[in-house]
Amino acid sequence: MGTDRVQRAATRWRPGCPPARLAGRWPERPLRITEATIHNLESVTAAYRRMYHTVAAHDLIDVVAQHAQTTAGFWRRAADPELRRSLAGAASEITMLAGRMSFFDLGRPSQAEPYYQDALEAAQEAQDRPLQAVVLGNKSFLPRSRGDFTAALQLLDQAKRLVPDDPIVRSWAMALEAMTKAWAHEPAESLVTLEAAEAVLDDATPEAAPAWFDYYDRSRLAGFKGQVYIRLAQPETAYAALTEAIGALDPDAAKQRACYLADQATVCVDEGEVDQACRLGIQALHLLGAVEYETGVQRVRDLRSKLRPWWNHPAVAALTEQLLLVS
């Protein structure tokens, strides 16, 4: 095998592994790109985006990663400026989806980080400010998960400044900011930001959201409010917000529903309602057994930790057994 073939084999994408950085070298051969090509790439991305809500990430990540690499390859090699910008936007969308799946579904932040970096570069070339802002917002979860709240808030500030006239994306960035401030033990600032996020969303119309931004609306804002109020030790307000969030969710949003049920269960523990907490936690686990969402499973693990004082309670034993099956 010649040297060039060895190098190509060494860098080839393999199922189960994240592809090499999407900014890598691409074959220098003629590339024919048309608007129809871009439309077809976008249609495949839209199909994966719909499947994301109902298909386990372990069954989807390999094809999403391969599609991200293919789309980025077309973007990198396109010569026409207009087509290149469209391809950059398409590459950013699918690469961000791969990053979200890596972080939220599979619990692999080290794999999510390069995806987000590539998605941001592509969004910048596409000159798509809302897309840039959403990549930055998703990227803020990485430092926040490490306890680096300053870095997370800096990313969210960049996101907000990119979308002064986009109420939906701006409200989402502000909701993430409120959550981050709650995690950082800044209760007053968190509540002020949460109220501002709600006020901004009042100016939005649902149809104004880009098709790829399908994970924020009033139900998701209510979910953010529930998490913030849990952190601020306001259980009644938290439970009410989470009840609103669950009631307004789309029927296919099993992953988010499981998270909100686990959050409600956490409130019940704080109120001393152990049986109800375990019932809600088991409901969440039944959903998670089908969709394999690591973020949701971690919420139930955290719930189980809070139930430690009731270790020998029959309901806690049932929850533990179900958690072991899902984990």
Summed up, what is this model?
The protein has 16 helices and no strands.
Provide an overview of this structure.
This protein has 327 residues and is mostly helical. Among the domains are: 37-127, no CATH class; 224-327, Serine Threonine Protein Phosphatase 5, Tetratricopeptide repeat (Alpha Horseshoe), CATH 1.25.40. It is 74% helix and 0% strand. The chain is built from 16 helices and no strands. It has helices spanning 3-11, 35-52, 57-77, 81-105, 109-126, 129-139, 141-145, 149-162, 167-183, 187-201, 218-231, 235-248, 254-270, 274-291, 294-306, 314-326. The chain is globular, with a radius of gyration of 21 Å.
Present the secondary structure layout.
Layout: H1 3-11, H2 35-52, H3 57-77, H4 81-105, H5 109-126, H6 129-139, H7 141-145, H8 149-162, H9 167-183, H10 187-201, H11 218-231, H12 235-248, H13 254-270, H14 274-291, H15 294-306, H16 314-326
Helix pairs in contact: 2-3, 2-4, 3-4, 4-5, 5-6, 6-8, 6-9, 8-9, 9-10, 9-11, 10-11, 11-12, 11-13, 12-13, 13-14, 13-15, 14-15, 14-16, 15-16
Task: Please name the CATH topology of the domain at 224-327.
Answer: Serine Threonine Protein Phosphatase 5, Tetratricopeptide repeat
Task: Indicate the mean pLDDT.
Answer: 91
Largest sheet properties = none
Radius of gyration: 21 Å
SS summary, helix count: 16
Structural category: mainly alpha
Distance between the termini: 44 Å
What is the string of helix and strand elements? HHHHHHHHHHHHHHHH
* Outline: globular
Weakly predicted, low-confidence segments: 1-16
What portion of the residues fall into strands of 2 or more residues?
under 5%
Extended strand count: 0
Query: Architecture of the domain at 224-327, CATH level 2?
Result: Alpha Horseshoe
So what's the CATH class of the domain at 224-327? Mainly Alpha
**Helix coverage percent:** over 70%
